[in-house]
Specification:
It is a single chain. The protein is an alpha/beta fold and 515 residues long. It folds into 4 domains: 276 residues, Aldolase class I (TIM Barrel, Alpha-Beta Barrel), CATH 3.20.20; 30 residues, no CATH class; 62 residues; 118 residues, Double Stranded RNA Binding Domain, CATH 3.30.160.270. It has 17 helices and 16 strands. An 8-stranded parallel barrel has the order 2-3-4-5-6-7-8-9, surrounded by 8 helices. Strands 11-12-13 form a 3-stranded antiparallel beta sheet. β11 and β12 form a beta hairpin. The longest helix is centred in the C-terminal third of the chain and has 25 residues. The termini are far apart. The structure holds 3-methyl-2-oxobutanoic acid and zinc ion. Zinc ion binds next to loops.
Length: 515
């Protein structure tokens, strides 16, 4: 028997990008959008076209590139300029959607918008009507719906559906609801909005109280047929509903919930990895579904049970989310074909040129590290992505020498190649070797910014492990991520800093060129 479908609306590129410290390039957004397409999400909210040139460009490029049935959405406030921008950015999309929103709770209407409920109702209706001139598929969100007067909520939903909204979203904007209450709210909407059958009910839950996924599932049990959320639970403040969690709830408990999604669950792990890597936000080890410990059994009793029969302590097969546990390790003697097939197994399909470049990096790593694991290969591919995504005309580390110890002042000498092809050498002392290296780099790049985050992770266990450095720099209140990996952590630190500065320069140039 075919089950009723729940549509999955991914907003990683819009609400997810509102996570503090996030900032992606258009190329990175495009790469994530392509992976979301493989995952099989029904709608990708590619951005908020009117909010910045970068977002406009991202919505446009994703619209132009996605074929197939996936819809591309742009967010817009309830005003003509925003809707026009969204319509323009979505012009080439095969399946466009405009998502208009306006505050509906008294506290936001009176104190933020400084309007009254009747004015807001008129703006909502006229905006849906205006958005309909650009595309048939229009979604409406009454922001802060869970703190909105119920009679007013029914009234505004009824009015926007009459005006042509095809999806009405119920956002728990401040993550205030608890599951039974939220489920009841959805049920009351199905009973009190006369024309509700003409639209799909969507939910958009924030995780301030940790209820986002549970609230979304409660909503589905009461009639919602679209769930909005982000991969890895990214999003404003404590984030949105974690899409991998809601998807695996529906998959694992399909008998109980009686619904299904269009998702290819085998792409979940890969999507989570990619999003974590590109955003530079690590997934916590005990995170449901995609955390490093999600399928690890530590206690003797559990291990004993799983060895005898996995069902004793496992409700999901890790393979169903595409988690591979192939311990086949690679090393110095592994060949190109072996690397290719191992990378394919990990979900990386490479062109000949990409494989050539990956193989070169692999051999280089194998000279320094005896055993290369899946985690090392994933890290290597992450470095390859950064190389491919970097503008050709950016700064590159050519040479580096440092001196540090217990009795001398740390110092560094750096040679960078510059965007115009020169090689510049600088040196500096510092409080430590990383400080000395960063000061020398600053003398060459001379684009003042503040270092706001510096973190070193070890990719695998062992003394020869790769060090993976994450840094964030800030300029004009905008954060820029940088990553670098190497078996030498000072070199990894230098690479990460140069990566952050390159991204900062290229994103600023992109904005300037479009202004
Ligand atoms: O949280 C929220 O209310 C939103 C809306 C724009 C849907 O993100
Ligand atoms: Zn939100």
């Amino acid at each position: 028997m075919s089950q009723e479908k729940v549509l999955i609306f991914d907003t990683t590129l819009r609400d997810g990008e509102q996570s503090a410290g996030a900032g992606l390039t258009v190329t990175e957004k495009l790469e994530i959008a392509n992976q979301l397409n493989l995952l099989g999400v029904d709608i990708i909210e590619a951005g908020f076209a009117a909010s910045s040139e970068g977002d406009f460009d991202a919505v446009k490029k994703i619209s132009n590139s996605l074929s197939g049935t996936t819809k591309v959405a742009s967010l817009a406030r309830c005003n003509k300029e925003d809707i026009k921008k969204a319509g323009e950015a979505l012009e080439k999309a095969k399946n466009p959607r405009i998502h208009v929103f306006i505050s509906s709770s008294d506290v936001q209407i009176w104190h933020q918008l400084r309007k009254n409920p009747e004015e807001v109702l008129d703006m909502a209706v006229s905006s849906v009507e205006f958005a309909k001139q650009y595309c048939d598929d229009v979604e409406f969100s009454p922001m802060d719906a869970t703190r909105t007067d119920k009679e007013y909520l029914y009234k505004i939903l009824n009015a926007v559906i009459a005006a042509g909204a095809t999806t009405v979203n119920v956002p728990d904007t401040v993550g205030f609801a608890v599951p039974s209450e939220f489920g009841n709210l959805i049920k009351s909407i199905t009973r009190n909005v006369d024309n509700i059958a003409d639209a799909i009910i969507s939910v958009h839950c924030h995780n301030d109280l940790g209820n986002a996924s549970a609230n979304s599932i409660a909503a589905v049990q009461n009639g919602a047929r679209q769930i909005e959320g982000c991969i890895n639970g990214l999003g404003e403040r404590a984030g949105n509903a974690s899409l991998e969690e809601v998807i695996m709830n529906i998959e694992t408990r399909k008998q109980f919930l009686g619904v299904a999604t269009n998702i290819d669950t085998k792409q979940i792990y890969r999507t989570s990895k990619m999003v974590s890597d590109i955003f530079g936000f690590q997934v916590q080890a005990n995170k449901a579904i995609v955390g490093a410990n999600a399928f690890r059994h530590a206690s003797g009793i559990h291990q004993d049970g799983v060895i005898k029969n996995r069902d004793t302590f496992e409700i999901m097969d890790p393979k169903s989310i595409g988690w591979t546990n192939n311990s086949l390790v690679m090393g110095k003697l592994s060949g190109r074909a072996g690397l290719k097939s191992k990378l394919e197994e990990l979900g990386f399909k490479l062109s000949k040129e990409e494989l050539d470049s990956a193989f070169k990096s692999f051999k280089d790593l194998a000279d320094r590290k005896k055993i290369i694991t899946d985690a090392d290969l994933e890290n290597l591919m992450s470095t390859q992505r950064r190389i491919n995504n970097n503008d050709k005309d950016s700064y590159k580390l050519e040479e580096m020498h440092i001196s540090s110890g217990t009795t001398n002042i740390p110092s560094a000498t750096i040679i960078l190649s510059t965007p115009d092809g020169k090689k510049i050498k600088e040196n500096s002392t510092g409080t430590g070797p990383v400080d000395a290296v960063y000061k020398a780099i600053n003398k060459i790049v001379s684009s003042p910014s503040t270092l706001t985050e510096f973190k070193i992770d070890s990719v695998t266990k062992g003394i020869d492990a790769i060090g993976d450095v994450t840094v964030r720099v800030e300029k004009n209140k905008q954060g820029y991520l940088g990553r670098g990996a190497d078996t030498d952590i000072i070199i990894a630190s230098a690479k990460a800093y140069i990566n952050a500065l390159n991204r900062m320069i290229s994103m600023q140039q992109h904005d300037q060129n479009n202004n």
